[in-house]
Amino acid sequence: MQDDSEITALLKDYPMPAANAAYFDQALVRATHEGSRRQRNRWVMTGFGSAIAAGLALWLIGGFFLTAPNLPETDTPGVPGITMTLAEPQTVNFVFASNTPLVGATLTIMLPEGVELVGFPGQREISWQTSLTAGRNLLPLRLIALSPMGGEVMATLEHMDRARTFRVRVDVI
Amino acid sequence: MSTSNHPTFEKILRPHMDRLYRLAWRLTGRKAEAEDLFQELLIRAYGKLDDLVNIDAPGSWLSRVMYNLFIDEQRRFARRRMHTVEEGELSGDGLAGLPGADDPARDHEQWQRFERLAAALSQLSDDHRVIVLLHDTEGYKLDEIHVLMDIPVGTVKSRLHRARARLREILDKDGTFFEQGAC
Fold this sequence. Notes:
The complex is a heterodimer.
Chain A: H1 5-12, H2 21-56, E1 64-67, E2 81-84, E3 90-98, E4 102-110, E5 115-117, E6 125-132, E7 135-145, E8 151-159, E9 162-172
Parallel strand pairs in A: 2-9
Antiparallel strand pairs in A: 1-3, 3-7, 4-6, 4-8, 5-7, 8-9
Chain B: H1 7-13, H2 17-28, H3 31-47, H4 49-52, H5 58-77, E1 85-86, H6 108-121, H7 126-137, H8 142-149, H9 153-173
Helix pairs in contact in B: 2-3, 2-5, 3-5, 5-8, 7-9, 8-9
């Protein structure tokens, strides 16, 4: 190829999905609701900080739930488990199921000593904001065990004033 | 009819939403992340509504806020390496969800070229990828990119040049253009 004309022509036509008007309508509504909530929270937290923070913990209710299918249960009832090989990265798929879309949720992954998220060396707690669609949402986590100790990986999903925590037992061989 | 509960907010935002959504998509390259970024921008904008009503060019301001949100997110969580995806999109490359992607009537050859382009773009640095997509795909002017990314116009030009050169190198190597050339 002699110049950039072919590549700019290809880039010019490079497609992307268009959002429809209904999506924009929903986004506006969510923005005003969530924006108002954050403004209220900012005011409340400024005035009553720690007291309100303690109160929020009492409002952990259902509405979304977490599942991890195809993982066998461990000796601890209700806690699924995986077995990892030392120093070999392995992908664990967490499934977050929700009956409604969750915008602006916070997901926090807590790792036991000796288990790391690939690409995040030395970090035991990683947190970020995300949104979930209604239905099942998959989060692939690429884990690596750097010691034979194992432990529990915990994923906590928080949305507005609700939170749920899911645990996976990791055994290392 | 107003769909949000704040008609002033909607009146300011609505004319810019399509362009902002496209920017979110070009920055992130994935539907779920683009929607997160777009939604977060709207939430932040609502919180700044008192300022927003007095801004002469809200589109530029909103674009700049979105870009900064994107950069903050990249710095904080290296998020592209770990993302929530909808089922069925695990192997998606950003084009899989497009209407007509599986339409046999679509120009298959052109589609393959787009897929190779997507793969090539993913090999660029974020700066290069964003600049080449905004300029060559979305039609942003050099000066608009300079304002958006807060870098000199000369730097925008040189990064654009290098991004195209790198893309050309990758696509020439994988035969994307040679297959189409007149032999």
